[in-house]
Specification:
CATH class of the largest domain: Mainly Beta
Helix content: 10-25%
Largest sheet: 11 strands, mixed
Structural class: alpha/beta
Low-confidence stretches: none
Distance between the termini: 92 Å
CATH superfamily of the largest domain: Hexapeptide repeat proteins
CATH topology of the largest domain: UDP N-Acetylglucosamine Acyltransferase, domain 1
Radius of gyration: 27 Å
Shape: flat
Number of strands: 39
CATH architecture of the largest domain: 3 Solenoid
Mean pLDDT: 95
Strand content: 25-35%
């Protein structure tokens, strides 16, 4: 759906510099055409302002004079994201409840929901208004799904899982599978029944093939507005706060508490029964074996403070040469000792 630049400026609350123009979409500076909007957020792309064919660029006031038309923004990346949302088409091709979906007679599906073929909604499950359930989804008995949610294909909500309003679960998400609870005994490995639940807050987005295990007792929980990437594993009884950013392939072991506004970069691993404070940032591949106080920025395996981690990374490539020099110094020291003993 096309829009004019003036309409976009009004909707986003930005200043338009230059004449008006019909806009068909959005694109990068390099690929944008004359009927598309692009953006400049990183100064290293400033040279592309001279060559871009974009009809308009969302940029700071500093660079607005370098293009024919500019939408002036204090945060170009954020406002470009808002602009993209104006042109984004929602996925899906139907409305209503398809005859080939299974909705248990005891389930409650509110007005305005869409349920695709081959979805399963179990007994006593409750689905809020305006929620979309794509093919292959399983919503188990006694689950509660809020309003305005999207469950993309093959999402699984095991029994009694609770999902807040305006959540997005991408393809293959599994909430409420059994936690990894086992006890070695003289008779073999004994399974510990996992009879708790999973409770997800409002405005949470969970990436493809991420898994969040049900609690042994009580609930594994994720707070409002937290965003979780693909291929993340969250163990049983984890308590995660609000507005966290959890990047791909993170693993959080059972019964760990994660505070609010925590960022955990890709492939970080956190041991169980720990406490990660508010505002903590953990770098990529961080290995966390002890609790972390509020506000810490850590990296490495095991984790150390950011400064130590960066200095260590600087020294690391030099270690082979330093080792050779150490061997040479040891030989020279041994020779000196031999001379002194004569």
């Amino acid at each position: 759906m096309g829009r004019t630049l003036s309409d976009i400026a009004a909707e986003l609350g930005l200043e338009l510099r230059g004449d008006d123009l019909d806009i068909a979409g959005v694109n990068t500076l390099e690929a944008a055409g004359p009927d598309e909007v692009s953006f400049l957020a990183n100064p290293k792309y400033v040279p592309q302002l001279k060559t871009t064919a974009a009809g308009a660029v969302i940029c700071s006031a500093e660079f607005a004079g370098d293009v024919e038309r500019a939408l002036v923004s204090e945060n170009p990346y954020l406002d470009f994201g808002r602009c993209v949302a104006l042109f984004a088409r929602p996925q899906g091709c139907m409305q209503g409840i398809h005859a080939q979906a299974y909705v248990d007679p005891l389930a409650e599906v509110a007005e305005g929901c869409t349920v695709y073929p081959f979805a399963f909604i179990g007994p006593r499950a409750r689905i809020g208004a305006g929620t979309t359930v794509f093919p292959g989804c399983y919503v188990g008995e006694d689950c509660v799904v809020g309003s305005g949610c999207i469950l993309y294909p093959n999402v699984v909500l095991m029994a009694e899982t609770v999902l807040g309003d305006d959540c997005i679960l991408h393809a293959g998400v599994v909430l409420g599978a059994d936690g990894f609870g086992f006890a070695p005994t003289p008779y073999g490995i004994q399974k510990i029944p996992q009879i708790g639940t999973v409770a997800i807050g409002n405005d949470v987005e969970i990436g493809a093939n991420t898994t969040i295990d049900r609690a042994v007792l009580g609930a594994t929980s994720v707070g409002d507005s937290t965003k979780i990437d693909n291929l993340v594993q969250i163990g049983h009884n984890v308590q995660m706060g609000e507005q966290c950013l959890i990047v791909a392939q993170v693993g959080i072991s059972g019964s760990t508490k994660v505070g609010n506004n925590v960022t955990i970069a890709g492939q970080a691993g956190i041991a169980g029964h720990l406490s990660i404070g508010n505002g903590v940032t953990l770098g990529p591949k961080a290995g966390v074996a002890k609790s972390v106080p509020d506000g810490q920025i850590l990296g490495g395996n095991p984790v150390v403070d950011k400064g130590t981690f960066l200095r260590t990374m600087t020294v690391m490539p030099k270690l082979p040469d330093m080792y050779k020099r150490l061997q040479q110094l040891e030989k020279e020291l041994a020779a000196l000792k031999n001379e002194a003993e004569k």
